[in-house]
Design brief:
alpha/beta; TIM Barrel; eight-stranded parallel beta barrel; binds zinc ion
């Protein structure tokens, strides 16, 4: 049974809570870290956010999220680069280890072209990330998001992007929700271990018949993903970071968040 101190919770998991509420509740419950979504920084500003996070004593595996590189117009691609730089600045301010990247996709743009633009975007921000000592973690997204969120869907495509840049500051965030079905998952996790690109590990579970494409994730153990097996794979590959709990759920967001966090803690200990 993993200790809660081996887990970090993504603030989006308790969507109605402020950053202060998240940090207080996670630290009190005994979790080891918090991964911060930018929407909880926005209302208070980065200076205040940094104070809250640092005072909590929690580790911060990730700031979520940057990316969204591809666009038809060059002005939009430049705006994305600027935003990714701001994201790296914010990550440095709150002491996050990495920025999670949802790389982007554009309706009407061939995926191969989108991937090319992602590579260009990554090569334009990687030096800034390195200078600020912030890792960038490409999160492959389930192919149901290939139209408009991510042209990188399999572990292999994330690896190709990493190999193209070949920087110690660029790696992969493995989210079980997105890649549990990937026939190459085990082999790619092992390769990521060898290539030192295994930066993040996100857990939740997959409802066999999702009612919503985004916000119907379920608690670990309530779905069909063999999370313990995937965790064993990432650990065998040398992953030593915190396991990040990241659950978007309209159903759970409508419940009492204190009670919900207790259920999350139990589910983590029993099913991760
Ligand atoms: Zn994730």
């Amino acid at each position: 049974m993993p200790e809660l101190s081996t887990a970090a919770v993504h603030t989006m998991t308790n969507k109605s809570w402020s950053l202060q509420q998240c940090c207080d509740a996670y630290a009190t419950a005994g979790f080891g870290g918090v991964s911060v979504w930018r929407n909880v920084i926005e209302p208070i500003g980065i200076t205040e956010a940094s104070k809250i996070v640092r005072a909590s004593g929690l580790k911060v595996p990730a700031l979520v999220r940057g990316g969204f590189f591809p666009a038809f117009e060059s002005t939009l691609r430049q705006a994305a680069l600027d935003d990714n730089q701001r994201c790296i600045d914010e990550a440095a301010e709150i002491g996050a280890e990495m920025v999670v990247l949802v790389v982007g996709a554009v309706v009407g743009m061939p995926l191969a072209e989108a991937r090319k633009q992602v590579n260009e975007g990554l090569s334009n921000v990687i030096d800034y990330a390195a200078k600020n000592k912030i890792k960038l973690a490409i999160e492959p997204l389930h192919p149901m998001y290939a139209a408009d969120r991510s042209c990188i869907n399999r572990m292999q495509e994330a690896r190709h992007a990493c190999e193209a840049i070949a920087s110690p500051w660029l790696g992969i965030a493995v989210d079980v929700y997105h890649v549990w079905w990937d026939p190459d998952l085990e082999a790619e996790i092992a390769l990521a271990g060898e290539q030192k690109t295994l930066f993040g590990f996100h857990v939740c579970d997959w409802r066999p018949t999702p009612r919503d494409l985004l916000n119907d994730r379920v608690l670990m153990g309530a779905g069909c993903i063999d999370i313990k097996h995937i965790r064993a794979c990432v650990e065998r590959a040398g992953f030593e970071g915190l396991n990040e709990i990241e659950i978007f759920s309209n159903e759970k967001w409508a419940t009492d968040q204190e009670d919900y966090l207790k259920d999350i803690a139990k589910a983590y200990q029993q099913h991760v």
